[in-house]
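Internal ticket - ligand job 314, ribose-5-phosphate:
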Amino acid sequence: MKDLRIFTGRSNPRLSEQIVNYLGTSLGGVQLENFPDGEISLKLFEDVRGRDAFVVQSTQRPCNDHLMELLIYIDCMKRASAQRITAVMPYFAYARQDRKDEGRVPITAKLVANLLTVAGASRVLTLDLHAAQIQGFFDIPVDNLSAEPVMTAFFESLDVGPITLVSPDIGNAKRARVYAERLGGELAIIDKRRVSGSEAVTYNIIGDVRGRTVLMVDDIIATAGTMMQAARLVRERGAERIIVAATHGVLAGPAIDRLAAAEIDHLAITDTIPLSDEARRRLPNLTVLSVSELLGEAIRRIHRNESVSSLFIK
Ligand code: R5P
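stdout (structure tokens):
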């Protein structure tokens, strides 16, 4: 496509390759490395002057390095006179720090929005932001796609029969309702409280799961505390089959141990974050779904100034 330039950071080059394959193009040439002290060095080998430039970079662990690399990319493109710069962030880190819910804490999601904008981003393309309102932290366009079409196709392929969509916490109820409508299932909601960054406690479930196939969808599995507790609760309440899915497999700390031990029949995540060898080895029930076509199609539409929201946004 004329005047389109797509570059990748180092957080998820495989996904970037799949995106450009979908678009029938190739990644822009770049030299990206670290100085001996760890600082990032970048040089574009492609001319971006007057071009529609995209840089694909998830910001999973090490979040700060990946974020800084993205900011440096954007600064570089701005100084090289790109006409428009889109930060494509399949996984947008720090999104869970989106409000001041107690005294003396930052709103880091807003800080990240400021950093991206000041660096020179013209727009952001992301997927299943933890809270859709984060779009309002930006004064530039933000396209927040949903992995729902990819997930729904996967669930349908499992041929599960009658299901109950269980929201693992109140905050996810809207997402669960969307899936319940798409898949024709019933809805149940778990009352969860977070007691620390890695511990969640589930108190009760509103709705009946006895003898049902249960499907639980979340935006993120981080330490897997939420899903571990939710799976335990629905099993106690008589669920017959448990399917768990999350867009972003952050899989931090005890997550792999917890998921390996949990009584989950199918587990699905997308490829917004590369899967570790350990996770691949220890989670035989895990399926990785690709969002490359979803992101590729959104890039095509943004580039052509066509509607993205009509197809993908919740
Ligand atoms: C919380 O509001 C999110 O939607 C996820 O449920 C949460 O981030 C998952 O974290 P963890 O896997 O550590 O319980």
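Auto-summary: The radius of gyration is 20 Å. The longest strand covers residues 186-194.
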